[in-house]
Specification:
This protein is of the alpha/beta class. Helix content is 29%, strand content 18%. Strands 1-8-7-6-5-4-3-2 form an 8-stranded parallel β-sheet. The site of zinc ion has 6 residues, from β2.
């Protein structure tokens, strides 16, 4: 592996993926415009009211994002079960990457292989209460591992620090097994902990309320970026 880190990171120290879950649902496109390019990826949370106790977007939203932002990296996080039932409908929407939850897939090895065969980068996610050993047999199949740092379903929750050792173990496993996945963390992330998370090995930081919950999403994203690059705690925006 090169010194620049996993190839999906493109030589950057980390990537910022604002979650549109916290954007104004009547103005998602406008909310993305207001980021003024201070983001790397667009993170789309798909919820089914069954695997998680909330409902969100269907594939039409991803299709429209793809049409209106042809060059943006669209990162779809599916919190729905059985995960296999959602693959085809979201692949048709042409995102760059689809992450499935290990807890929601009956045949996770097959599901990840199917994503790859359909031309979408596969990712695997685990909840805060799920041990890393559950996904160790499929790490070679994925481009991204998502470590949930809140229980999935809602934005604006508090970061669960007990999830951090999984990031450090993923860094070690990646080196030992010579793999190339990026490590994404999702939930409770903002300028106050971004520096510590990047120092701990996170490659992709998802932030919803810390970006779109602020009056100026571009400034909020820039503040998280500064914190992540400097490795320092920076005061989050106050609303
Ligand atoms: C939670 C979602 C997250 C959520 C993060 O189930 O997967 O992506 O939008 O929101 P914040 O950053 O507000 O914790
Ligand atoms: Zn998410």
């Amino acid at each position: 592996m090169s010194g620049a880190g996993p190839s999906l990171r493109g030589g950057k120290k980390f990537l910022l993926a604002p979650s549109i879950l916290s954007a104004d649902p009547l103005a998602i496109g406008d909310s993305i415009t207001r980021l003024k390019g201070e983001h790397d990826w667009i993170h789309v949370d798909v919820m089914d009211g069954r695997f998680v106790p909330n409902l969100s977007y269907g594939p039409q939203v991803v299709s429209r994002l793809r049409e209106s932002l042809p060059d943006s990296f669209i990162d779809v996080h599916i919190m729905a079960e059985p995960a296999e039932s959602f693959i085809d409908m979201f692949v048709q929407a042409r995102p760059d990457l689809i992450t499935l939850h290990a807890e929601a897939a009956r045949h996770v090895h097959m599901a990840l292989g199917r994503l790859r065969s359909l031309g979408v980068r596969p990712g695997i996610a685990i909840n805060p209460g799920t041990p890393l050993c559950m996904i160790e047999p499929v790490l070679h199949l994925v481009d991204l591992v998502l470590v949930m740092s809140v229980n999935p379903g809602f934005g604006g929750q508090r970061f669960i620090p007990e999830t951090l050792p999984k990031v450090r173990d993923l860094v070690r496993l990646r080196a030992v097994r010579e793999l190339d996945y990026v490590i994404e963390m999702d939930g409770g992330i903002g300028a106050d902990n971004a520096g510590m998370l990047v120092s701990s090995g996170c490659d992709v930081l998802v932030a919803g309320s810390a970006v779109f919950g602020c009056d100026d999403p571009a400034e909020a994203a820039a503040r998280i970026r500064r914190a992540a690059e400097g490795g320092d705690a920076v005061r989050p925006c106050v609303k």
